[in-house]
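URGENT: need a sanity check before tomorrow's submission.

F., can you look over the FdhF/YdeP family oxidoreductase record below? I want to be sure the sequence and structure line up before it goes out.
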Amino acid sequence: MEESPKTNPAKAGKSQEQKAENAPKSGERPDQGEAPVTDNYRPDPQGERDQENIPAPDVAGAKYKNPILAQPPEALTGLKLEEQAKVAAGVTAVIKSMEFSWSEGGVGRGTKALLGLNQKDGFDCSSCAWPDPDHHRSVAEFCENGAKATASDADDKAAGPEFFAKHSLAELSRMTDRDQNNAGRLTHPMVKRPGGTHYEPIEWPEAFQIVADELNALDSPNEAVFYTSGKVPNEPAFLFQLFAKQFGTNNLPDCSNMCHESSGAALSTTLGLGKGSVTLNDIHEAEVIMIIGQNPGTNHPRMLSALQEAKRNGAKIISVNPLIEAGLNHFKNPQDFMNPLLVLGTLLGNGTTITDVFLQVRVDGDMALLRGIMKHLLAAEELNPGKVVDHDFIAEYCTGYDAVVENIQNTSWEDIEELSGCTREQLLEAANLLAHKKKIIACWAMGLTQQRQGVQTIQELVNLLLMKGAVGKPGAGTCPVRGHSNVQGDRTMGVWEQPTKQFQDSLAEEFNFTPPYKHGYDTVESIKAMYKGKTKVFVSLGGNLLAAGPDTEVIAEGMRKQKLTVFVGTKLNRGHLTTGETSLLLPCFTHVDIDMQKSGHQMTSCENSMGVVSQNKGILVPLAGQMMSEVAILSGIAIATLGERTNIADWVAMTENYDVIRDHISRVIPGFDNFNEKLRRPGGFYLPNGPRDRKFTTENGKANFTKTELEKYTLEPDQLVLMTIRSHDQFNTTIYDYNDRYRGVYGERRVLFMNKQDMADRGLESKQLIDITSHYEGNMRTVEKFLAIPYDIPRGNVSAYFPEANPLVPVASVAKVSNTPTSKYVVVTVVASEAVRKTQKAKPEAVEA
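Structure tokens as predicted:
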């Protein structure tokens, strides 16, 4: 058994080891241990899910029925439109980062936070999960969005008991999401008691006992739901799933169910591991990079630095997106302003050109696009035998190739062009970049995963990589780009409604209990169960399910049916206000806060998009109040709830020293052996990754080509297809401001991006008030008071920000296999708003007023 601080105090807190020179060197394949067993993803769990349809809620009328608004308020905040930006980052990004940081935490506190961000002896960014360099890191190892997230975490304003005494839940719900977030840090545990209108202070012991009493009163443990956010570090995530399973349920929905679940489902069955296979160094070495269904300039800005280095090394980049995003166009690296050789060119020029070939695909048309590219590659292979397709790789490592080739050849160019929105000639340009290259990386995000056929589209993308032998070697492979800082790590820690038998057996042996083996509710199934009254307690560790999930009013109704809702969080959000009969709001530390426990200053860990686990150690003194760490809160709940059914002394020990948690993890989860030692290496360590070394842990031990079905869907003449997106001043559901400067939108979020011809066909003018109605299986949902704006988007497609557009997404509309909500395929109609129709036409000036 590995020694730990519990048995050998000398093992604790070896901070001096953080300066050891044992990080992986740039360009080397890291030592990552043996590949684990397959993820054992269920190939088609649809039959086990609730197939009963939920009737469409009265989305437009909900504001009149409930005093506490579940949707953001409809009041417009002053739309101004400018030209789309053609360059991402640059001086403006630096200025905006500093402005926001200093406005939230003050100059001293804000600057100190930024200087510790993503450093080897500092704390992990709570924003995106893009990896940090293995070796050298700059003084400013962050992007604009990371600076905003850190500044928000470092906020020196408090939303304490006085704030909640002043504002009822109904009043708070009428604040914008931005103003809720900017109200300040939560500092005291609060309770809304039955019949109450306000959150009121409560002491921690009573709060823990309320949770325990409600949980222990349930007829079945499966009447409780335990939801997590990807912002939660490994150690509390491990305790969260441990507590839920010791309590007796696998109802562990998480935000991954709504984002990269489709990636996990596709990669597990094709390559054996539901994670990407590349490292950051591979990006630098790639010859061709495909960026498909992803907007790095807004969602993962630090990725642009890696793309810039790849371009300087000669890489070509193919971008596939319905929108022409600034980050896919040009990039000015703020780091270049500190280089005297680059500063002048950076200031005067347009920066680095990112995209070589841009394919403006229709929403949901990516599978057809990929099919077309491969059709071209097969034609090139016929003319140049053995020069385009890697037959040696396929013969040694793969199965299913012939069936996929036949499937591609049987697909007509007419279908490919119609469904993708791209011409045969455009796809040939992309295929020509790929044809004679071997080091190819495919990067994607929710633009693929949230389609109806998200899993199958990613499988098609894997088919392309396998055809080229572009998996399992330097400069090549899969790169699903995750969102929140530890969304990948939470799944590794066991936060999954579909736990494998191996994982549960390891938990049972380590903690001496019998865990549940029956699969639990994912996010969509949890929403349905809550709505139908099948659950009574909802516990959320971070996150904002109300704003992140589909069918906002269905979620809200489900929350109101709970006996108890528990929200562990750092700042107020809309999800804290639509509550059960009793509700607890429990304040916790952020990544930037110093976490002092009995054994001293604690650190946690996160796993980034490329499987690197590194430390997170806060550097700021928490605000005055009664905040606790996530670990301490979970331990308090577990001890109060489980009592003698668990090892109370162990929960206490884990709270007093997080090294004890990591000792448990090291014996339960493959790849985490000597966890405490490896975490103290500068830069952390790589987890085992079979596909990275061509060790495919699928059931047949091979990399599997997948024969997919290219489905056609018919729309009515007036119908459009909506996809939801983020704005630039937003990370996930957290709204920092009302601007989206790369797209030229300022002062407003209730906008619908429309093709100019689609607007003209409907008699709509720029900035005109509109209502949007979604259509699904005969049900309609309508949101009111949006503004139509012309934009460069394919005809038949429209786009809007979430969470404002989430009420339009039916909870029953999900991707096959993964059960992910189809936020990238919502059938809608658009009409002038009722107020406009009554006056025949409203002038844009009147709308702005």
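My own read: The first strand starts at residue 80 and ends at 81. The longest helix spans residues 91-116. If you see anything odd, call me.
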